[in-house]
Every structure is written in structure tokens, then in C-alpha cells.
Amino acid sequence: MKAKEPTPIAVTIAGSDSSGGAGIQADLKTFSALGVYGASVVAALTAQNTRGVAAVHEVPPAFVSAQMDAVFSDLAVGAVKIGMLGNAAVIATVVAGLERHQQTNVVLDPVMVATSGRRLLAPDAIEALRTQLLPRALVITPNLPEAAALLDAPEARTENEMLHQADRLIALGANAVLMKGGHAGGAESTDLLVTAIASIRVIGERIETRNTHGTGCTLSAAIAAFLARGRGLTEAVRDAKEYITSAIAAGDRLSIGNGPGPVHHFYRWW
After folding, report:
1. What crossing angle do the helices spanning 215-228 and 233-249 adopt, rounded to 10°?
2. Which one of the listed residues 115, 195, 209, 212 is annotated catalytic?
3. Which candidate in 182, 204, 216, 251 is catalytic?
4. What's the rounded Cα separation, in Å, for the pair 239 and 122?
5. Nearest in space to 107 (alpha carbons), one of 248, 7, 213, 11
6. I want to staple 17 with a disulfide (CB 3.0 to 4.6 A). Which of 22, 34, 60, 122 is the partner?
7. Is 180 designated active site?
8. What CA–CA distance (Å, rounded) separates 121 from 110?
């Protein structure tokens, strides 16, 4: 009997989105769309829809730890995506779990504020994110406001400023930084993948659409999915950028909610 091929597996450690467009729900959809089995560790619950976040319920750190132990002790996990964690205690718990289970293919999306403006990370937890979790990640994927918050600096306005802020994040201990240029202007959406020795421009078409709910979650989850499938970091980032650009472009096919709708994770199928 022929041995079965290993199934690529990725885990999302993040907050839930009750409307399904962002957070864990978006991550699991992304994993599935890209041919990866998705598992999850729920670090927070949100009551939200396309118009905003109405309430947040934080998960006790001990239960976050129990979920991590259950998943990582049984599943052959190829990559981890980390999103909303909520507070410093949960961040410390996640860091300990990553070390305990020797996870290195970690994509950190430093979620701090929802698109609607609702704060998703306690202010005193930013230091924990910066000093404890950032160095544990293979790559971090901040947008311009998140990078500014991590550095306590003004938002970057040009590619040179983006590169400078990425270098500062590397100096803080980041292994690689994907500076997302989605909040900037121009006909193209240019991200910068920066390491201590190189920087690469990752370019996609800028799509004019309201369907932007969950774009950051989806991009970081896509990077994790491609890492789980064996891609190197640069290739994973390029493939993920192509996927999110297409998912945003197809978002207008959907009619979901009354606010900024989600991207179309399954645009290739329906």
C-alpha cells in the first residue's frame, strides 16, 4: 500500500470574527483556498460585522495554552499565523507555546486596531508584542499605522520612509518585515519585504473597492499557507500578494453586509 503524502497544515492563533470576513474565519478560508489544512487557536472573540467591532471577549491565557498544546502535540504543523491576541498575558502565553512546540515558521500580523477604528490590543501590550513576540516570528506583516505604533513614530509616507521603518524593526529583533503599502496612494500597491541584508519590492495592482474587510488577515494567512506548502519566504510572499490582489478584485462579486465587505477567498471556485 502506497504511503500517503503528508498533508500541509497551518495554524491560526488569532481572534474570531463573527461576520466571517476577518480573523480566524478569514484565515481558515485562506488556508482552504490554498490547499492547506487549517487548525485554530482562539485567542479572543469579537462581536463584529462589516460596520465595526461591537464587543471583544478575551480568552483566558490558560485556555489559549491548552488549545496550543492540543493542536501542536497532535498535528504536524508546517506554519503558524498569529493575529489578534488582545493583551500582554496572552502574548506571553503564545510565546511560551511557540517555544515549547519549537515553531519557527511564524507569520506575525501585529493587529492593534480594526479597520473601523476599534482598538484590538491593550496599549500596555504593545511593548510585549514588540519585545517578546516580534523576535519569535519568521516575518512580521505590519501595515503603515501598525509599523508606526510599534516604533512610536509617524506613519511612513514614502517607500524610503517605509524602508527606514522596516530597518528599525529589524534592529528591534525582527527576522524579516513585510511593510504593507496598502494605506499609501498611487496606482500600485507596493509592499517591501526587508531583511537584514536585502529588500525586495512586491507589487500588486491597487484595486478601487469597498471590499477590504480582512485583507491583512488574509495576506498573512496566505503567506503561512505557502510556507506550510514548502515555499521559501520570498516566494511565499509573492504568491500571497498575488492571491490577495485577486481576492480583493473579486470581492465586488459578493454582496455581504452594509459596510466594507470581505474579499472573495474562493474566487477561483464561485
Report:
1. 140
2. 212
3. 216
4. 33
5. 11
6. 22
7. yes
8. 9
Taking residues 195-218, report their average pLDDT.
Answer: 89
Q: What is the architecture, at CATH level 2, of domain 9-253? A: 3-Layer(aba) Sandwich (3.40)
Q: Is 234 a catalytic residue?
A: no
Q: Is 261 a catalytic residue?
A: no
From the candidates 141, 215, 218, 245, which is the catalytic residue?
215
Q: Tens digits of per-residue pLDDT, 140-194?
A: 999 999 999 999 999 999 999 999 999 999 999 999 999 998 655 566 778 999 9
Say which of 181, 182, 217, 251 is annotated catalytic: 217
Domain positions in the chain are 9-253
Q: Say whether 136 sits in a helix, a strand or coil.
A: helix
Tens-digit pLDDT profile for residues 59-82:
999 999 999 999 999 999 999 999
- Please compute the mean of the pLDDT values over residues 8-22 and round it to a whole number: 97
For 252-269, the pLDDT digits (tens) are 999 999 999 999 999 999
Q: Is 213 helix (H, G, I), strand (E, B) or coil?
A: strand
| Known active-site residue 104 | no
DSSP strands (E only) in the chain = 9-15, 37-49, 52-58, 79-82, 106-108, 139-140, 177-179, 188-194, 199-205
Catalytic annotation on 181? no
Question: Which residue has 517607500 as its cell numbers?
Answer: 159
Instruction: Count the Cβ atoms, other than its own, within 10 Å of residue 70.
Output: 12
- Alpha-carbon distances, residue 46 vs 27, 42, 119, 222 (angstroms): 15, 11, 12, 22
